[in-house]
Write a structure and sequence with these properties.
By secondary structure, the protein is an all-alpha fold. The protein has 4 helices and no strands.
């Protein structure tokens, strides 16, 4: 269960670079032997990143991970909330006369 321990006192691993190479090989071996765990982890992290960044997953990610409408709904709602919030800021600035975009008259 879990990853293999790092062998610091083994003669094959004399430098820090050797140890890093060994760690990478162990990680790849674990990933190859547990593809379902890797897939579920990546799927969960994709949704989490999109929620944190208030961004949409790519179409290929949606197809790859087979996201449901219910899973994507909170992301769309937070994105819509952000759009409304930003548009209200722009509207308030234009009413105050502090809008810098398009405030020049070209008459």
């Amino acid at each position: 269960m879990g990853r293999k321990p790092i062998l610091n006192n083994d003669e094959n691993f004399k430098t820090a670079e050797d140890i890093l190479i060994y760690q990478k090989l162990v990680k790849e071996e674990w990933a190859n032997s547990n593809p379902d765990k890797v897939f579920n982890y990546n799927r969960k992290k994709c949704l989490q990143r999109c929620t944190d960044r208030i961004s949409l997953p790519t179409i290929s990610s949606v197809k790859k991970y087979k996201f449901t409408r219910e899973e994507l709904k909170p992301i769309f709602e937070s994105l819509l909330d952000k759009i409304v919030e930003e548009s209200e800021k722009v509207n308030l600035n234009s009413l105050d006369g502090t809008d810098t975009e398009g405030s020049e008259d070209n008459a």
